[in-house]
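User:
Hi there, any thoughts?
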Amino acid sequence: MKIGTNCLAVALATALSPAVAQAQNLFVSDSGSGNIYEFTPGGVQSTFASGLSGPTGLAFDSVGNLLVSAGNNVYELTPNGARSTLNYGFSSPQSLAFDSAGNLCEADLGSGNIYKFTPSGTRSTIASGLVALTGLTFDGTGNLFVTSGVGNIYKITPGGTRSTFASGLAKPSGLAFDSSGNLFEADSGSGHIYEFALDATRSTFASGLSPYGLAFDSAGNLFESDSSGHVYEFTPNGTRSTFASGLSQPAFLAFQPVPEPSTWAMLGMGAFALLGFRRRK
């Protein structure tokens, strides 16, 4: 019985440690091949979905379903890969992002609008009249940031007020925030990844690339999809390594979400209950 109790204690410690319990897999939309690839933290590649028409935007919802924009559609892929089509009346969706309330936001390349869809599919317009929309991301306070092919990054507050956060860029595409609230932008025209401080002060984080999509993992490493067919990984200090290669035309990136703290609490309570039961016996 003592051995069993010790094993339960180890299981409990593991359940309460998100860093140990579930590593994040990286998902990459490869618009050239029509596939969505999944990579383990060790770089092992598998095909999560195939047969899509130029997939670009990726976003995970709160329960782990992956949303992908492809052609004129947005598809929902469950964790086991089952696919369904969201019949929300999309036109030419480019990039996707979820707000903190679980609403899906979509940058529509054809209309120049940014739409918001409730979980039931009700649509409203967040912004209109934009040109060559590419990337979308939210900051920690609910502001939406979007890149435009005219060289701007726009900031849209939760109330809908729009302002220009940065300008003078060269074909900006993917966006991602680090844990400190700094905004990173893939500047595909110049080959740079720029870092913007909270006050919009710009610095060059990396150069000599053909960047498109960006995403941070939970450890603060930045991943970049490159038109050369690579996915590069950057440590917080900017050291670059090749995470994956041999892709066709990698577009956007998304990391599998880490389970919410409530999930770990439930696991812990279950382990405590089982531990107490074993001790009573």
Notes: The chain has one domain: 35-280.
